[in-house]
Design goal:
The chain is α/β, with parallel strands linked by helices. It has one domain: Vaccinia Virus protein VP39 (Rossmann fold, 3-Layer(aba) Sandwich), CATH 3.40.50.150. The chain is 31% helix and 20% strand. Strands 3-2-1-4-5-7-6 form a seven-stranded mixed beta sheet, sandwiched between helices. Helix 4 links the parallel strand 4 and strand 5. It is globular and about 55 Å long. The mean pLDDT is 91.
Length: 223
């Protein structure tokens, strides 16, 4: 096995942050859809019937060699298989939101795969509130060259809420004690948004009118 891949699995296994998430939301006992699962280093720790999605055939191969249930799929471009009618307890997506062509559409598209009382756990690198920290190596992750979306903690929360989700909590999970964790919000470079589907969500009238115009222009262009 590639030593770099082994290191990824080892790092996740000893991560205090991930351990705090596992304990807080009983992820080892719940059916999780891990979107952007890479080699399955997080997926390995989730409950029975959990499934991972990756766009890399190499990652899929590694995950299956470890007897992990991983599908080759691009959630933004592909329709999941017709028999993929599962409802999950949790949708987990870590370090993928900042790479997406359309983060808003992603947040809309994943809702049918989550139970109504289920949770979204979205991990995203963010520009720290104390912006000068971005010049330090530890805090540069949000500005990585592969990223095409950039968030602060505040804009990340609004992006999730405006796609029809109710926020449960947003923190770094470096500490199991949420109060201590919240005290460090000003400097954290990475946050986990935990949210539930807002069943009453509707776009504003102005947004609906805008969508009508967008869809009509799209149809005219196609014809």
């Amino acid at each position: 096995m590639n030593s770099a891949i082994e290191k990824r699995f080892a790092n996740v296994a000893r991560s205090k942050t991930f351990s705090n998430l596992i304990k807080r939301y009983s992820l080892s006992e719940r059916k999780v859809l891990d979107i952007g699962c890479t080699h399955g280093e997080f997926l390995k720790h989730f409950g029975h019937e959990s499934i991972g999605l990756t766009i890399s055939s190499e990652e899929e191969k590694v995950a299956k060699e470890r007897n992990l249930n991983v599908l080759l799929s691009n959630i933004e471009q592909d329709e999941l298989p017709e028999d993929f009618n599962k409802k999950f307890d949790v949708i987990f997506a870590n370090n993928i939101f900042e790479h997406m062509q359309s983060p808003h559409n992603f947040l809309i598209k994943i809702k049918p795969y989550l139970k109504l009382d289920g949770l979204l756990i979205l991990g995203v690198p963010c520009i720290p509130y104390l912006t000068p920290l971005i010049h330090l190596k530890k805090f540069r992750g949000a500005l990585a060259s592969l990223h095409i979306n950039f968030f602060t903690r505040s804009t990340l929360i609004k992006s999730v809420e405006y796609a029809g989700w109710d926020i449960v909590e947003v923190r770094g999970f470096h500490f199991s004690n949420s109060f201590i964790d919240y005290l460090l919000n000003l400097i954290y470079p990475h946050f986990y948004v935990v949210a539930k589907i807002n069943e009453k969500f509707q776009y504003s009238p102005k947004r609906l009118k805008e969508l009508e115009g967008y869809n009509s222009r799209l149809l005219n262009h196609e014809h």
